[in-house]
Amino acid sequence: MEVTLLESTDDPEELICKAARNDYSAGFVGEQSFEETMATVEGETIEEKKRTLIGHLLNHGHYGPFEHAQVTFAVKGVSRSCMAQITRHRHVSFDVQSMRYVSFDDVDPADVREGEMVVVPPSATDPDWVGRNQQSGQVDDETVAEREQLFKDTVAQAVQSYQDLLDLGMPPEDARFVLPIGMEVNMVMSMNARMLMHVADMRAAADAQWEIRGLTEDLLDLAEEWCPITFEHYNEHMKNRKNRLAP
After folding, report:
1. How does residue 57 score in pLDDT terms, banded at 50, 70 and 90?
2. Residue 226: which of 4, 2, 1 has the closest Cα?
3. Cβ atoms within 10 A of the Cβ of 135, count?
4. CB distance 117 to 111 below 8 Å
């Protein structure tokens, strides 16, 4: 999986602060300098004032101003299982690689056995991996080797069947029905800063599925570069809550 920040609001935290100060300011933020807008906020420098105000907003549950800062990510190589989970967040906008229009008729099933084009879960190769609702704990090396072989053979067979169906004239939108839910997909997703915190509340939690948890951690890493005061505060004080930040 690879996550890239495609586009984002410039100086998102200045925008967040302007929106927040608009609620309590007699003056009009559209006619003031940022220094004038932040004049009554505690702090010696503008950076300190932003940190004071953003921390106050997050600590007191005033999340509306965070909806103005927007960010767009490109995500490469997540499973369709993970895609189905993340797209449940209806306030995030998505574009997903289509298997109606993109066919994989030139993929070598041997490459699929080596992990190309499909996400291989850790439990297929790691004898010590313990997942949610797993029937048993650790397994021996022989068992996990059989598990890995069965997983890869099944996926490769599905890909070969898909290509055979294409050769028999079946349209890609129908032939894809035989492909496994672990097939990789690329997507673009846009959201505001508040929604990203909500997604993280749900999907970076300890009981979230491993793949979407990894995706969310990557999103948060990029968000901390883009919107540092906000997501430093989130990661330090608010992360791993469960259903705390309403959409």
Report:
1. very high
2. 4
3. 4
4. yes
The pTM (predicted TM-score) of the whole model is 0.88
Averaged over 194-212, what is the pLDDT?
91
Q: Which of 236, 223, 214 is nearest to 190 (CA)?
A: 223
Model confidence at 137, pLDDT cuts 50, 70, 90, reads: low
Q: Are 1 and 38 spatial neighbours (Cβ–Cβ below 8 Å)?
A: no
In the Cβ-directed half-sphere of 216, how many Cα atoms lie within 13 Å? 26
What one-character-per-residue DSSP string does 40-58 give? TSS-SSHHHHHHHHHHHHH
Q: Which residues are catalytic?
A: 203
- pLDDT of 98: 79
Helix intervals (H) in the chain: 12-22, 34-37, 46-59, 80-86, 109-113, 141-167, 172-175, 193-203, 210-226, 228-233
